[in-house]
């Protein structure tokens, strides 16, 4: 094996220019593949972290996954119903104290309750339709990142101000309102109530900043005429990987529809999977092109060293040894390219991580999300060595099959 390696190293060294070109081809393929993988996975992880921070890991709603059976269907073999008059019943999760207590017994995470409804916000003669969320401030801060989005005031002031209101800054700007101003909220039932703005938030999501508001749970229950009723329970887990199992168990226990963050973003997960397939396909394509360069150089060496091959075979070298020589030549180029490419990939990734840019005037300067992982280097280097091995094996078979007598006589 040592002798074959020395022969392979001699061949590679004698064609230094072609070796350097092939090595650079592999190095560029590996380097750009690593940098691209670091950027794409970094952006995906950054987006997922932002998404997971912005939404509950599990949300229990006042809804059923399957429609409630009609009482008449238990008595009659009916296939259709007409003229049904539903009972006057307020939607919502009843007995929230009992429901929350039963969840706290086994859920490893923070739990909060909400009552969400629609209302019209009026100030200085202007009206805006709002989604009003009734919360208990301390609980809400444990399950969402609304506290980090506060620009003026304090979210916890909702706990000390019975009619406090935390409003999106875009909505306040449209109304001309500011911290400390008093506004009027009117529900769909015509109930009106005055609220004092105790905080302004900015999430960077226009729809939220223009049409979302938070108020104390009791005040919202009074406004929407839903005393002691909530319509959502939100959970932030210590381990997000068990969200699906937690949601399934909570749904069985309470009877209400429970949605995990994965189910709520199922389409997004599929999009990420497709993007990863595209990324690794592009990486494979880059390294395949580099493999053709290796194939070209090894084929040239085989052609030029035909007489040397004949002499080796006449000295008793078996065909597998001849193949090993030229496969080693390809692997030497692949290893050198992988090492240089890994260093290049690390350098490119480090440089990309320092680039700053600004999306809007409301967002501070930020950097490209780069994720450094040894897996990227292993995959890129492994694909480079695989392509180098294949590129060396094909001409190696041809070299091993040469007839030494024909070569010496000048038949080839």
TrEMBL record:
Listed Pfam families: FtsX, MacB_PCD
CC per GO annotation: plasma membrane protein complex
Ranges where the ABC3 transporter permease C-terminal domain occurs: 282-404
Example GO biological process: lipoprotein localization to outer membrane
Compartments, as annotated in UniProt: Cell membrane
MacB-like periplasmic core domain residues: 19-251
Keyword list, A-Z: Cell membrane, Lipoprotein, Membrane, Transmembrane, Transmembrane helix
Keyword 4Fe-4S: no
Membrane-spanning intervals of the chain: 20-40, 277-298, 331-354, 374-394
Membrane topology of the entry: Multi-pass membrane protein
Main location: membrane
Coiled coil (residue ranges): none
PANTHER family: LIPOPROTEIN-RELEASING SYSTEM TRANSMEMBRANE PROTEIN LOLE (PTHR30489:SF0)
Protein family membership: Belongs to the ABC-4 integral membrane protein family. LolC/E subfamily.
Protein name listed in UniProt: ABC-type transport system, involved in lipoprotein release, permease component
Organism listed in the record: Roseibium alexandrii (strain DSM 17067 / NCIMB 14079 / DFL-11)
């Amino acid at each position: 094996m040592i002798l074959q390696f020395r022969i392979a190293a001699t061949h590679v060294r004698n064609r230094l220019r072609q070796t350097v070109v092939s090595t650079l081809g592999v190095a560029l393929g590996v380097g750009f593949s690593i940098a691209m993988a670091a950027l794409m996975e970094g952006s995906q992880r950054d987006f997922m972290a932002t998404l997971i921070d912005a939404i509950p890991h599990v949300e229990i709603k006042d809804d059923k996954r399957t429609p409630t059976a009609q009482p008449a269907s238990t008595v009659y073999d009916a296939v259709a119903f007409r003229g049904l008059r539903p009972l006057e019943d307020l939607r919502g999760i009843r007995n929230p104290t009992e429901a929350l207590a039963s969840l706290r017994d086994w859920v490893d995470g923070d739990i909060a309750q909400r009552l969400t409804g629609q209302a019209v916000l009026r100030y200085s003669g202007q009206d805006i339709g709002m989604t009003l969320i009734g919360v208990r401030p301390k609980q809400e801060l444990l399950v969402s990142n609304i506290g980090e989005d506060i620009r003026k005031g304090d979210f916890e002031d909702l706990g000390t101000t019975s009619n406090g209101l935390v409003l999106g800054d875009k909505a306040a700007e449209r109304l001309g309102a500011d911290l400390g101003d008093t506004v009027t909220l009117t529900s769909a039932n015509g109930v009106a109530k005055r609220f004092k703005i105790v905080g302004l938030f900015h999430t960077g999501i226009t729809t939220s900043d223009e049409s979302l508001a938070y108020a104390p749970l009791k005040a919202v229950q009074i406004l929407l005429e839903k005393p002691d009723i909530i319509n959502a329970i939100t959970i932030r887990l210590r381990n997000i990987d068990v969200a699906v199992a937690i949601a399934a168990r909570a749904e069985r226990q309470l009877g209400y529809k429970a949605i995990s963050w994965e189910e709520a973003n199922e389409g997004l997960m599929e999009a990420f999977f497709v993007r990863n397939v595209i990324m690794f396909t592009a990486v494979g394509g880059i390294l395949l092109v580099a493999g053709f360069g290796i194939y070209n150089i090894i084929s040239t060496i085989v052609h030029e060293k035909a007489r040397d091959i004949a002499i080796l075979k006449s000295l008793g070298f078996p065909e597998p040894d001849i193949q090993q020589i030229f496969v080693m030549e390809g692997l030497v180029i692949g290893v050198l390219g992988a090492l240089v490419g890994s260093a290049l990939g690390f350098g490119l990734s480090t440089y990309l991580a320092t680039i700053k840019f600004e999306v809007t005037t409301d967002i501070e300067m930020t950097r490209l999300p780069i994720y450094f992982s040894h897996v990227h280097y292993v995959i890129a280097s492994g694909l480079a060595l695989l392509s180098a091995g294949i590129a060396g094996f094909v001409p190696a078979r041809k070299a091993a099959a040469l007839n030494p007598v024909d070569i010496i006589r000048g038949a080839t």
